[in-house]
Protein: Phage repressor protein C, contains Cro/C1-type HTH and peptisase s24 domains
Organism: Xylanibacter ruminicola
Amino acid sequence: MAKKVQNTATIHERIALCVQFYGDGKNTLFADKLGVSEGNIRGYIKGVVPKADVLEKIVRTYDVSPEWLLTGKGEMKNQIKIEESTNSAEKRLDIPHVSLEIGEGTPYYDADFFGGFSEVFNSQTTVPACNIVVPGFDKATVWCNVTGHSMEPKINHGDIIALRECTVDDIQYGEIYAVVLDTLRTIKILRRGSTSDVLRYVPINPDFDDQEFPTSRILHVFEVLGSIARFF
């Protein structure tokens, strides 16, 4: 039976946990089996974001769950064995990756939600930087960057977020939304406000305060389906 592992906040902490489990707590042992340097592993633990090829090596070498490695959800040990195949598309089915195939994956815009995303998203001429394929996020219509600390540890500074555009009428209280208002952009848990014409914007990080804004100020609203550490 696979071991239950607590949800760790960042990909760096999850890599450290992998080293503890599979490398007996030694960066060198863990790195040697992956074919990377000990310095690389040390960097990933300290804050360097690993590229997709390194994440794929961790998943395949140690049979780690891709979803757990990227998001912290579920169990560390992969529950579905990734079979070897001569078809590269089949081999990478359960591993997040960049796709160059037309119609495969979800558009990713290399723009921060808080600084330029809405302009890029609404442009008729701007094309996505690439498409990305992330298992479990099939309902997303777009990915973009996110900065800031108000939603940590759920959404971390430097993550990429999966969004699906919706309307104010679609809002479910208690869920996370990315909202474009007339003078600002924010990502928060939305709850009922003090009056019927306002919404309360609630951060996860206790160092930040709740705010209220009239619903009439909302220009666009997106459901936040989740976030992962940037892997490319």
